[in-house]
Design a protein that fits this description.
- By secondary structure, the protein is α+β, with helices and mostly antiparallel strands.
- It has 10 helices and 7 strands.
- It has helices at 3-18, 20-24, 46-53, 58-62, 70-77, 125-132, 161-166, 191-196, 213-220, 227-234, and strands spanning 81-87, 93-99, 106-109, 112-117, 135-141, 148-158, 176-188.
Length: 242
Amino acid sequence: MDRFGKNIIARHECLRENHTNLTARPLAPYHERDAMFQSMMPVTSVAEVRQILGTPFPNQVNKIIDHIDLHCRAWIERTPFIVLSSIAASGAMDASPKGDPPGFVKILDKHTLAIPDRPGNHRGDTLLNVLENPNVGILFIVPKRREVVRVNGTATLAKDTNLLDEMTVNGKAPDIAIIVRVREAFFHCGKAIIRSGLWEPERWESIDGLPTYAQALKDHAASADTVEAIQSRIAQNDERLY
């Protein structure tokens, strides 16, 4: 057996040993818990994490590149949906979904990407975070593909007219763009999407009983507006995408 096989066996033995006590003490149902959850077996060191995970596979360590190559370019040009993560100087984090027709993230050169900022909730979380802390991470998601492309780098904001004009959709250019200088780019395996069944409708749970966006917005914002009034405004989103 090679060392990778031994690592996997050791990992499972470690997990089985560490979870023995937990399986003997099942968690109380969520609605019956009186206090905030506190772990009885926290993991607090690099050594513990490495004992659980084992040695990283060489290809997974070496796969990270510092630019957009032909493989990453092909993927980004087919991507209609990304998740852009940023962090404020205070440490507050944000993960913002952004979507547009495939290829909406522009590749300006092999080290630089441009992301249009479309009309949204006017909070500006990502934009304000970038001004305080330029570090960002991006997930590029292509429907029906299990893998994702990840890009990490530093961001700035720009309103160059010629750049914004290239991002015009339905006759409307964005008011601002997020410029990302690529530090790392790599493909991430598809295990998470395989496990989730994200692209397999037959595995999806029913959405019956889920709160509507209007219901959640009224309750979370303690809004004086009725659910019906909020829903009426939400219904206009299709007409205000750009």
